[in-house]
Every structure is written in structure tokens, then in C-alpha cells.
Amino acid sequence: MTGTTFASESTMPFSLGYGTNGFADHPLPIALELLAEQGYDAVALTLGHPHLDPFADDLDAQLQSLRSRLDELGLRVVIETGTRFLLDPRRKHRPALVDEDAAVRLAFLRRAVDIAAALEAECVSFFSGVLPEDTTPETGWQRLIARVADIVEYARGKGVLLAVEPEPGMLVETVSDVLRLRAELGDPDNLRVTVDIGHCVVVEPAGVRGALLEAGPLLANVQLDDMRPHAHEHLPFGEGTVDLPLALATLAELGYHGVAAVELPRHSHDAPGLAVRSMDALRAGWHEAGTIRESERWLQESTTAIAANPGTLNNIFARAGRRLGRSPLHPDADPTGVLFGTTSDHARGQLMGRLGEFLSPDELAEALLALYDGGDSAERRGLLRGLGALATGLPKLPDVVVTAGLRLTADALRTSESGIVAAAAGPFAAAYLDQHSWRHAVLKLVFMGISLSAVTDLQKRADDELARMARDFAAERTAAGRPIPEDVHLLMQSSSSFSTSS
């Protein structure tokens, strides 16, 4: 790769940690040693069983010893307060700050602040809790505001920073909710935000990057895990849909210098192995983050230049590969770059997606056609991915842009270049290609041996006719004594569950 890759040439500006709630089968001293051994330089300490009883008679002595050990191992620490049954052995996370009687929770949070002060912790992280069934949101907010005000003042007296974590299903569910709470309290300087990047794919409207940017300089604590949309389940990296490199790149862009700790509270059975694999994933993600950061810098520079002088578009577009390189965007999942494109494909696509901000529809359509007609294969892949970015970013594209896009897509689907055909089967084709042409695009991918993961909205648009065409193709292959690609089986087996389109 010829482009600059900052992540491979510099250290992370933030500290990587691991949550002790993912080491519940290890004594705390052993867990800390294992984490330091694997290269972690921070720990997210969850108070309560089995590691540190916040109500122990000898708590002061334990804290003095723990502070010394953290210093010896070079570990920063944040305090987490999400122990499930610490305060009520029968009800998880109860009482909560939004309950009618939250005295026990308030006492616990004050104790957490005391512990943070003794350990010189970066912050105390806490959440609002789930609203009781018989409580209105208005009442919940009244309770929360009054109680958090109490904790804020107590923490201020101890010199401790607080961070509210938005949680799916709780009253404070998004970063916007935390900012609302903060505003209601007069924006206290010691009340900030925790962001769990897994939660972002479940509840945050703008996803991981949007949530982190919204928190901005108020970001005081980060939790790292994978997650799938609509399922609040912490998963090891690679098992969900979180874009880890993008999250790490965004943290670097924000100049975040705090702790970012892996949180896998239900995986203590494999804690040592997961700590190793998580660190490997984080290092690989940081390497990819360098490409993302350089691409974002290029996008900002290019957008500014084109807005000032549209005549620079052709030259900037052509030189993207030289600046950003031509490596596969996701080398592990797509080592050839056919399915998801290269670093420069992606950057060109993102640039095209932004041109609509300052070009008229006619100018944008003209630019699409001119760049495609005069471009090489790499530039054409970028344009096709740019169509996808445009289709994703707007609910409906102007007719003149759709017409130009359909011409480009039709031409791309007539080629025999796998990268171009795959790029043409993305979001623009899903949104605007007629059903007859779309079916043939899907089958062309099968004919060319390209994975159908390149197709956007396959299950949404697939219909009985596509299944019939797949069966016919399979019959021809069988008669010729040739193997049937797995994706053909997918089309045939899944056709009954596909929605019918016309």
C-alpha cells in the first residue's frame, strides 16, 4: 500500500483495557497479571462479587494494596458499577436510580466514588436503570435528575469524574439522552459520557461513529465489544456487526486519551483465551483504522478543493489510488477486494456520496457519466460504490441522477470484470434496478463465482422467479456433470422465505 497508514506507525492515543466482569472465575490479582501479560494497560473494575466488595470491613486496606499493584503493573483503572445482583439478590440491577426508592443505589454510588478517589481511577461509570412498569417517563426523569445531581455534587467534593452509560432498554438509552440529562443539570463539568460501541449498533441512530462524535470531548469512558442489531448481547470481536476499525479510528480522530476496555461479562469461561484474541483483534483493527483515518483526511481535503473548484474533480478522483493505495478494504473477509473493494474504491465512493452536498442534480449526473466513461476499472468501481453511497444517504435520488446511475449500472453488468460486477450489485441496484435486470445481475454473480454477499437486500428482493431461474441453472449444471455453487443452493433453499417482488 502506498498511502500513509498512521496506525501502523504510531501507538494508540488511548489505553486498551479489559473488564474484570469478564474474569469472574479468576481472583482479581491473577486477572490483573494476565491482562498486563497480554499487553493491556488498563482495567475496568466492576465492583462487587467476586473481585472487590465495596462494603467489606477491610476495604481501606484492600484499596491500598490494589493501588500499589496497579502501579506495579502499569494499569490505569476505571470503576464500573454494573454488578447484576449486588444490591438485591433477587432483582438484577435493582434498585435503580429511576425506582421509587433508590437510597441503596445512591449509597452504593457514593461508595463507588470513594473507591475511585482511593484508586485514583479515571472515572466512575453508571447507568440510569430500566423504568419500572408503573412509572411514567416523566416521573423517571424527575427522579433521575434529582439523584444524579446528588451524586455529581458528592463526586465533585472528592475530585472524581462521573460518566453516564446509555444502555438499550433503559431510560437513558442513547448519547442524546445523556446530553439531555447533563443539560437538565446545568452541564456539570464532572459529568460525562460512557459509550459502549456494541450498544451503538442496537440503539444509536447514527451508529458507532455518530455516537462517538456526538459524545465528542465529553467522552470519558469507552467499552469495546461486538454486537448484533436488535440484540443486546455482548459478543467477541468478529461475531457481530460492529465496525471495530471505524470505532478505533473515530476515537483517534477525537483525540480520546482515556480507557477503552473490552467488556465481555458472559465469557468468563474463556477469559484467558478471549483476552488474547481480543488484543489480536484490537491490534488488527488499529492497523485498519490507519487506512480509515487517512481516507477521511483525503475526503476532507478533496471535498474542500472540489467545492472551491469543481474542475479539480477529475484529477482528484484519478489520483486517489496513488494517495490511498489499492489494498483490499477488508483483507481477512475479502482478500482479493472483489466483494467490498479496495481502500481507494471505498474512498472514491465516499467522495461521490458527498458531491451531492454542493453539486446540483444535473451537475452530479454529468460528473458521474463523465468520470465513468473516462475512467479505468478502479475508477469505475469507485463510481459504482459512490452510487451506493448516494442511494444509502438519501431517501430518493433526483431522477436525472437515477437515470445516469442506471446507465452506469447496466454497462457495468455487461462487463466480465468481477470487481465491477460486484460493485454494481450494491445499494443503488437494490433501490433502483428493475426486477428483471436485478434478477439477471444476481445470477451473473453466480455464473462468475462471486459470493452473493456482494448483493444488497438479497432477501428483500428475491422472488419465486429468481428461485426458478436458480433451479434451472442448477439442473443445467447437474446435466453437464458440473458442481453447483453453494450460492445457488442458497437461492433455492431460501426462496420460500423470500418476499415476493414485482
Oligomeric state of shown chains:
single chain
Please outline the major beta sheet.
Answer: 8 strands, parallel, barrel
**Going across the major beta sheet, what is the strand order?**
1-2-3-4-5-6-7-10
How many distinct beta strands?
10
Radius of gyration: 26 Å
| Structure classification | alpha/beta
Number of DSSP helices?
A: 22
Low-confidence stretches: 1-9, 495-502
Q: Percent of residues in helical segments?
A: 40-55%
Task: Explain the overall architecture.
An 8-stranded parallel β-barrel has the order 1-2-3-4-5-6-7-10, surrounded by 6 helices. Strands 8-9 form a two-stranded antiparallel ribbon. The protein is elongated, with a radius of gyration of 26 Å. It has helices at residues 6-9, 28-37, 59-73, 103-119, 137-158, 175-184, 197-203, 207-215, 244-254, 271-308, 313-318, 320-324, 343-355, 361-374, 377-393, 399-413, 418-424, 427-432, 435-447, 458-461, 464-479, 486-493; strands spanning 15-19, 42-46, 76-80, 124-126, 162-164, 191-196, 219-224, 226-228, 231-235, 259-262. It starts with 5 loop residues before the first helix and ends in a 9-residue tail after the last helix. Residues 1-9 and 495-502 have low confidence and may be disordered. It has 502 residues and is an alpha/beta fold.
